[in-house]
Amino acid sequence: MNKQERLHKVKRMNVQWMLLRLMFALPTGVLIYYFLQSQGSPMIMAAFLLSLTSAASILFMREARFVKALTTHDQAKKVIGIQYQLDYLFVIMMAVIFPLMMRLNILTSLIPFVLFVSGSAFILFTHHKLDQQLSWMDIEQPTRREIQRTRFTW
What we know:
mainly alpha, 5 helices, transmembrane, membrane, transmembrane helix
């Protein structure tokens, strides 16, 4: 199967799973807004956010399995798995850790802010390098960046 056929399969998968993604993204966004605006216990709201994002990990695992099935190279499958784990880590950082840091006013000091920003930059840099490795391992395998581009095209 060539790269265009694989991308077409991924595009069809993205359309099918769009509703599932929205079922997790919209409540998470509402919870983050409520978490930042309410005066309730921050740990209880963080637990709700963490449980919702933990349930969303099922979507990340399903998508990773689907994309891994497109290649026969074992090393490429490992790289794809790492990429989806990093995606999930980034979601945890943005949906749980960042709002918690804002709510507890931890971001006002320099060290936690620098750690958070450098951690996010490190994840994005690692994604870029893993995409390069993946394109070297299996030329016909779509990279994570190409898959994300097809996510929003009809």
